[in-house]
Design a protein that fits this description.
Number of helices: 12
CATH superfamily of the largest domain: Endonuclease Chain A
CATH architecture of the largest domain: 2-Layer Sandwich
Distance between the termini: 83 Å
Largest sheet: 8 strands, mixed
Order of helices and strands: HHHEEHEHEHEHEEEEHEHHHH
Number of domains: 3
Shape: elongated
CATH class of the largest domain: Alpha Beta
Strand content: 5-15%
Length: 329
């Protein structure tokens, strides 16, 4: 059956309707629809190609009409299978060409000479950052918000970071305090600091930032990080480097390991940040993002505060915290 044929000519449609009405059987000297079909006319061949009729085992002059619902089911199944195959091939094509597209766009950006360039697509952004980092010769500054990083991400950048350190490149990274509570991140930081990297953490949210040799910087252009801005303008790169340095000075040294005392200090800092945000009227989602926690982890901290202050609702908690801030409680 040819699944490419999905239409009937007017002649083939009329012939098939005639066969349906006569149950596909023609006898006698007259040339009825059945004999025309059996004689191999063009309309008949359309019906045969679609599987709407079949030659009867009782003789070449007899045609059996196939139920159109059966034909629909059979052709539908074949077409759906073919569609799935085409989708798989399209996905394979995208996977095959994505790295090449990323390299092409990266090359275009690298030779554009523009002080500010916009990039789109995570694959392109990742390829450009990786290329920039690998070419770094003196210093790499990175700010990674959101608490702990995914284990797969850490595995992917482990060799890259180790190579930089081996070449004598200074590597400084800022995380949020919540990274102290993430096992894979602690292991990664412990390994990298042993090789010479420096890592510190901050209590509140900051956006992602990558600065290579204080000559080129990367910042996200949207919340989903599907777009990015590459900055070569010396004044802007200098400003961003200064922002990093100022945050670095007030950040807490993070070596990967943690003592019970350090865990208490980090938990206390997170607690005070949550309290301050609640008093300021920030939403729960805003607070969770600000301190680098998942919504579930943040909800656990919120529940502990409600229990501590003996209240049941978020509104009551905010009111009690505001009173405490004024010294009324």
């Amino acid at each position: 059956m040819d699944t490419e044929v999905i239409a009937l000519s007017d002649e083939a449609r009329a012939l098939y309707i005639g066969l349906l009405r006569q149950d596909g059987v023609e006898r006698g000297p007259s040339r009825g629809p059945g004999e025309e079909a059996a004689s191999g006319g063009g309309a008949a061949q359309e019906l045969v190609a679609l599987g709407l009729v079949a030659r009867s085992e009782l003789g070449p002059q007899r045609l059996s009409v196939v139920d159109p619902q059966i034909v629909e089911a059979r052709m539908g199944s074949a077409l759906r299978s073919k569609a799935l195959l085409l989708l798989e091939q399209a996905a394979d094509l995208s996977e095959f060409l994505s790295p090449l597209i990323a390299v092409a766009q990266e090359s275009a950006v690298a030779h554009s000479g523009e002080p500010i360039v916009h990039l789109e697509g995570k694959a392109v952004i990742s390829a450009f950052i990786s290329s920039t980092v690998n070419q770094c010769g003196e210093e790499l500054l990175t700010a990674q918000p959101g608490g702990g990083r995914a284990k797969a991400t850490l595995s992917a950048i482990r060799a890259e970071t180790a190579s930089l350190l081996d070449r004598g490149v200074s590597v400084r990274t800022l995380y949020q305090h919540t990274a102290w509570h993430d096992g894979p991140t602690r292991d990664y930081v412990s390994d990298m600091t042993e090789l010479g990297a420096e890592v510190r953490t901050l209590d509140e949210f900051f956006d992602r930032l990558v600065i290579a040799d204080r000559r080129i910087a990367f910042i996200p252009a949207d919340a989903g990080r599907d777009r990015a801005v590459i900055i070569r303008d010396p004044a802007i790169v200098r400003f961003l480097s200064d922002v990093f340095d100022r945050n670095w000075l007030r950040a807490k040294v993070f070596m990967g390991s943690r003592t019970p005392q350090e865990s208490m200090e980090i938990s206390s800092a997170l607690r005070e940040t949550i309290i301050r945000c609640l008093v300021d009227g920030d939403s729960d989602s805003e607070i969770a993002k600000r301190i680098g926690l998942s919504t579930r982890a943040y909800a656990s901290h919120l529940a502990k505060l409600k229990e501590e202050f003996g209240v049941e609702t978020r509104f009551q908690l905010g009111y009690s915290l505001a009173l405490r801030g004024r010294g009324d409680a």
